[in-house]
Amino acid sequence: MISDSKYFDHTVKCSLCHHEIKERATLYPTGLEVKIVCVDCYRRFSEEDLELIANLLRAYGGYFGQYKRGKISILKILKAIHTDLLSIDKDAEAVQINIRMLHEALLHGITPREYIDNLELIFGD
Ligand SMILES: [Zn+2]
Hints:
Blueprint: E1 6-7, E2 12-13, E3 20-21, E4 24-30, E5 33-38, H1 39-44, H2 47-60, H3 74-88, H4 94-107, H5 112-123
Antiparallel strand pairs: 1-4, 2-3, 4-5
C-alpha cells in the first residue's frame, strides 16, 4: 500500500539511494516503519523489491548505488563479490551467501531484477 505523495520544504533523502528529494516523494510502509523513497526508486523497483531492499540495507547498512560501478559489467561485479564472500567464509551456507551477494549488489547499484538475471550466468554452468 502506497500512501499519498508529499511535498517537502526541507532536505529529505531517499531511504534507498540517498538522493536528495527536492520534489515529490513517496511514502511507503515496510513492516512497522514508513520509508521515504524518491520517484526514481519508486519507478525502478516493485513494491516487493522496495521492502526487500529496505530490509537488507537496514540489516547490513549502506545505500543503493553507494559504489559507482562505472563500465564494469554486472556479471563481473557479481563474480568478484562471490569470490570475496567465499574467501571470507568458505563454509557459509548458500542462503547466507545469496543474501550477502544481493546486499553487495545493491550497494553497486544493481537491482534485484538484474541480480537474478545474472545469477544464472554465474551458477548456471
Ligand atoms: Zn531513491
